[in-house]
Amino acid sequence: MTNRITVNTDRVKGTINRNIYGHFSEHLGRCIYEGLWVGEDSPIPNTNGIRNDVVAALKKMKIPVLRWPGGCFADEYHWKDGIGPRELRKRMINTHWGGVVENNHFGTHEFMMLCELLECEPYINGNVGSGTVQEMSEWVEYMTFEGVSPMAELREANGRTEPWKVKYFGVGNENWGCGGNMRPEYYADLYRQFQTYVRNYGDNRIHKIACGPNGDDYHWMETLMKQAHRFMDSTTLHYYTITGDSWQEKGAATGFPEEQWLRTLKQALYMEELLVKHSAIMDQYDPEKRIGLLVDEWGTWYDVEPGTNPGFLYQQNTIRDALAAAITLNLFNQHCDRVQMANLAQLVNVLQAVILTEGEKMLLTPTYHVFDMYKVHQDAQLLDIHLTSQVVKNDKQAIPQISSSASKDDEGRIHISLCNLDHQSNAAVEIELRGLVEDKVKVVGTILSADKVDGHNTFEHPDQVAPAAFTAFTLEGRILRVDLVPMSVTVLELTTE
């Protein structure tokens, strides 16, 4: 049977903010240390201590924005511990993640340098849980004030005369949990207080971000919007895809039973319901959609790899994760009227990482390849599509076979993303291209697939799951027929003459 998609190439529904393709780097496991930062004395090629290979890979992927320093770590992070001569910086125990010593060698200056190397926007998360209004206010002053002030002079003494540009600043993280176990009423009042002192200096304009709900906590969203919507530019949403029965038994990243394939993807598809319901609440208080919804933590979360530190959250990354990422990005694209940023957790060596490292070795995960393939949607115009999909099911789960989104870039190129969520069968897709006036249409495609449900890359075989040219399509008039192999992500590019 055939799946059908109508792409209205002349009907634009909005602009896909490039920051939907953002990422997250926390002081957790080997994300910062070993993954991004190796120090100037490392034999691993680096620029001022930051790994060259990782930077090159992330620039190719066009990473638009990077969130730091957490996560749960943010609400125990005191920024002054991470400035000045590294040998004098305060050492501390990372109580959230593995109980290891944090030497604070990677701090504000190093993070801002990393963002400059990546040519991406920094997104700083401030400390509400264990910090003070003064501490947060002084951090903003330290980073962005140009002129005579104690914090500007301190920044200059630490080697940076010119202030940085900082657009995105989060006032707390997960304050309903690790950031203080607060009630929404209490956090809303704290947010109003703290954000007052997150000031704009000179021509720097800060986009103030409130800590939004965890998953389907609609009461948190309702309370926060009711009490504080006038004081925010965006609010956040966190949602992780887990496959197991509980947070204590989240399931394995590889070697999982076949029935968990559909279960995982169904959990990823739940993002649609969350976006719809939270947006409906936001619409009551912000009908003009001034306030962005930032899904600044999302991704798959499994049990850690055997033999690794449980607090490091290191997991392998498979074609299943690639499909979960592609589904989610399609949903973010489709909800770009409200979703203005998203940050996959996390960048390197943690959770659904796009890069894994082992000493001097580096590999790109299947999820990396999805982000690289989907970068064509950044800042493009979302096109109106209508999808009729077949259903994939077993005794316990049922999901649509196809996930899709489409956009048009500023050069007029149309990109259609297609996911076949069926791990066993091909998917025939018939795409009607409405609204095209040009006679000649050229189609090229890229596909990512694997030969088993847990297909993944290893340091011994880093290219087992990698993109390839896709040619299994025919174009007759305005009808594009596509044959998708099982468990695959495909991006088609249409150009006209």
Report on this model:
- By secondary structure, the chain is α/β, with parallel strands linked by helices.
- The chain is 23% helix and 29% strand.
- It contains ten helices and 26 strands.
- The strands form six sheets. It has a ten-stranded mixed sheet with strand order 23-22-26-20-19-16-1-21-25-24, with helices on one face. It has an eight-stranded parallel beta barrel with strand order 2-5-8-9-10-11-12-13, surrounded by five helices.
- Helix 6 (218-228) links the parallel strand 10 and strand 11 (234-241).
- Helix 3 (133-144) packs across helix 4, helix 5 packs parallel to helix 6 and helix 7 runs parallel beside helix 9.
- The longest helix is centred in the middle third of the chain and has 16 residues, at 319-334.
Residue fraction in strands: 25-35%
Number of helices: 10
The largest pleated sheet is described as: 10 strands, mixed
Helix proportion range: 10-25%
Low-confidence segments: none
Structural class: alpha/beta
Mean pLDDT: 96
What is this structure's SSE topology?
Blueprint: E1 2-15, E2 22-24, E3 46-47, E4 50-51, H1 52-60, E5 65-68, E6 92-93, E7 101-102, H2 108-118, E8 121-126, H3 133-144, H4 150-157, E9 168-171, H5 184-196, E10 207-210, H6 218-228, E11 234-241, H7 259-269, H8 271-285, E12 292-300, H9 319-334, E13 339-345, E14 355-358, E15 361-364, H10 366-374, E16 381-388, E17 391-393, E18 398-400, E19 402-408, E20 414-420, E21 427-434, E22 441-449, E23 468-470, E24 473-476, E25 479-484, E26 488-496
Parallel strand pairs: 1-21, 2-5, 2-13, 5-8, 8-9, 9-10, 10-11, 11-12, 12-13
Antiparallel strand pairs: 1-16, 3-4, 6-7, 14-15, 16-19, 17-18, 19-20, 20-26, 21-25, 22-23, 22-26, 24-25
Helix pairs in contact: 3-4, 5-6, 6-8, 7-9, 9-10
